Amino acid sequence: MTEPTKTMLPPDEAARRVEASLARRRKAERRFHRMGLAGVLIALTFLVILFASIFSRGIPGFFQYYVELEVQLEAARLDPQGNTSVESLYAGDARGVLRAALFDILQPSGRSARRDAGKILSAGAEQRLRKMIVADPALLDTTQTIRFAVDEDIDSFLRGFILRDTPEADRRMNERMIGFVDQLQAEDRIHYQLSDYLFFGSASRNAEMAGILGALTGSILTLFICLLVSFPIGVASAIYLEEIAPKNRITELIEININNLAAVPSVVFGILGLAIFINLFGLPRSIPLVGGLVLALMTLPTIIISSRAAIRAVPPSIKDAALGIGASRIQVIFHHVLPLAMPGMLTGTIIGMAQALGETAPLLMIGMVAFIVDIPGSVTDPGTVLPVQIFMWADFAERMFVQKTSAAIIILLAFLIVMNAAAVWLRKKLERRW
Amino acid sequence: MQENTPAIAEPLSADRQAPDKTIGELFVDNPRMSARHVNIWYGDKQAIDDVSLDIGASQVIAFIGPSGCGKSTFLRCLNRMNDGIDICRTEGDIQLDGQDIYDSSIDVVPLRARVGMVFQKPNPFPKSIYDNIAYGPRIHGMASNRAELDEIVEASLSRAGLWEEVRDRLDQPGTGLSGGQQQRLCIARTIAVSPEVILMDEPCSALDPIATARIEELIHELRESYTIVIVTHSMQQAARVSDRTAYFHLGKLVEVGETRQIFTNPSHELTKDYITGRFG
Predict the structure, then answer these.
(1) Among A225, A198, A217, A202, which Cα is nearest to A356's?
(2) Residue A224, phi then psi, degrees to nearest 5
(3) B146-159 and B129-139 helices cross at what angle (nearest 10)?
(4) Tens of pLDDT along B121-161?
(5) CA atoms of A109 and A238, how far apart (whole Å)
(6) Are the CB atoms for A180 and A116 separated by under 8 Å?
(7) What's the rounded Cα separation, in Å, for the pair A123 and A121?
(8) Which residue has better confidence, A283 or B11?
């Protein structure tokens, strides 16, 4: 045997070098570990700050101040026609009845004092009284203790945003009104409680009457249309592209375009919707139908991409098995591929829907930003959606709107968290039943 | 003593190259399936080169050969499973009971009901044992009521030797069975649609020796009612279960004959080398 020109490392030298490199590797590992941990901690900190700021501002938004009054519901004054119809009630003097109840307590003397006293009640008080009578005509000619929301200025004062030591000329409440409020408080008639206007009210210029029900209904109707359109089309496209379409240039081009569509800014979809649904098809503006269609355009790529991934994850052996006993291609798809891919498809769909729920920009383009007091009853009634409502409220200067904006954000976040949790739960429950 | 280098690596001498014409008895008296001049391409690569072969009725024929020799490809063209592969192109004439299965008038759905397939890895559906078996009869409309379907399920499981083991848990998932049971379930699923031919693509390669023995026993029992084509890497298995053996090499069918003759007295050098374990 000839002497080898290149020698191997002796074992102890090799072990020493491995030891040396080991220290370096461990250090790198620790560094990476720490960096990852730091990243997570930073993200968590921001999340905590976000939640803390929204909750600290939003929680008071769920509550507001109410004043308790004993109201004499005289039938003759409230319901002049005696049939408790809406016209009759509007012809009646609900305002007078309420003021009488208020003046009973405050005893204002003189015209201007009475005017100031009248400002304490929210403008929605009369409407509330009429609604109560429509719901239960037996209340007529009785005396009821009813709580009415106070006007937004009074509310702000009670919350401490309007201060007593501000000069009278600079504040929105004069001394007399403060006196009235003190008087009501002394009689324990002012109550701070969960706001029913927030949940059951609709858009309003009066902060104390503003609520999210209209926007929430709009959101639900819009998402309903979005789901109805995007889920079947998305799943069908995914099945076609993955299982049926021949793999050639054209399908490749379609694939690239779908992936690109997922990255298109959502406002562009809004402009597209404006051009097609409103200008070309002549659909009305501001309706959930158009909103849903626009959001469906935006959600489609997400659904198609996740559905395709889910279909691709179905083991080919299952497809072979079905084909091997003579299932047709469509039977393989509907009996085997679809059930196995469904969890993934549903997860993708829910995440797409959650995106759509939080979307504002494309809906601004199609006019869902209008100020609409009525709660939409169908997909063709004008309406708005939660994020747009938040966007509009954020524009108002009143302190109460600031708090209600945060309250609405909390509600929107709650919906998003519920939807994402549903996606996780669904995936856990349905995936791999074998 | 010959040199120790693997035979596959050395330049092949004339008698060790795949012959232009297959050696042995290609044809039988009562063929169930017959292939004539079959060529298969994957894109530009030819996987099967001019193979002609008869598959006798109620016989077991084993396809053997080294990896990549095209035996599975040829098996899969017998029930057109290769149709699903876009780049795969098949030429030639393959007949089932005298009918060209690649004819444009032939529907692959009934064809695959007549020529069933069992795969390398047990692949039960993620459904109950009952539904696994009942799926085929259901899609082909073979049972008109529940009682008939029950009968088919029981008969299929019995023939596959699985009935006694699973009769009390038909509603449990088929995927909960052991590997060998799963493979027998797959065989039961195949015979539930009453095929004439069963293609088996290395049905025991994922199983332990005991489960393998059960499957081999089963093949023995099934040969009376079905024509069976089995691809195997195990020469002992081919010797144990088959009546005829076909040896493939690099896309060519080198030699076909009675299993006994192939294993005891192979005519071609390549067959001899493979069977004696010189390469593979």
Answers:
(1) A225
(2) -60, -50
(3) 120
(4) 999 999 999 999 999 999 999 888 999 999 999 999 998 88
(5) 75
(6) yes
(7) 6
(8) A283
Residue among A416, A405, A414, A418 at smallest CA distance from A60: A405
φ and ψ at residue A200, rounded to 5 degrees: -110, 0
Determine whether the interchain pair A335/B126 forms a contact, defined as Cβ–Cβ distance below 8 Å.
no
Testing the interface with B: which of A249, A325, A336 to mutate, by most B Cβ within 10 A? A325
Alpha helices in A265-327 (DSSP H): 266-273, 288-312, 316-324
Q: A340 touching B, CB under 8 A?
A: yes
Other beta carbons less than 10 A from residue A248's beta carbon: 9
Residue B245's contacts (CB-CB under 8 Å, 6 or more residues apart) are B61, B62, B63, B64, B238, B239, B256, B257, B258, B259, B262, B263
Smallest Cβ–Cβ distance between A326 and the set B86, B126, B193 belongs to B193
Residue A346 corresponds to which amino acid? L
Does the CB of A343 have a partner CB in chain B at under 8 Å? no
Q: Does B128 touch chain A (CB under 8 A)?
A: no
Q: What is the pLDDT of residues A324-370, one digit of tens each?
A: 998 998 999 999 999 999 988 998 999 999 999 999 999 999 988 88
Complex confidence, ipTM: 0.84
Label residue A364 exposed, middle or buried (CB < 10 Å: 0-12, 13-18, 19+).
middle
> Minimal Cα–Cα distance from A327 to chain B, Å?
6
Q: Do B112 and A318 touch (CB under 8 A)?
A: no
**CB of B111 within 8 A of CB of B79?**
yes
The CA-atom distances, in angstroms, between A388 and each of A51, A224, A366, A394, B181 are 20, 17, 12, 10, 59
At residue B259's C-alpha, the angle toward residues B255 and B261, to 5°, is 75
**Minimum mean pLDDT among A45-49, A396-400, B193-197: which range?**
A396-400
DSSP A376: P
* pLDDT tens digits along A167-180: 888 888 888 889 99
Tell me if residue A216 falls in helix, strand or coil. helix
Residue B95: what residue type? Q
Provide the token pair at A334: 């509907």
Contact A292, A226 (CB under 8 A): yes
The rounded distance, in Å, linking the Cα atoms of A175 and A168 is 7
Q: How many residues does the structure list for chain A?
A: 434
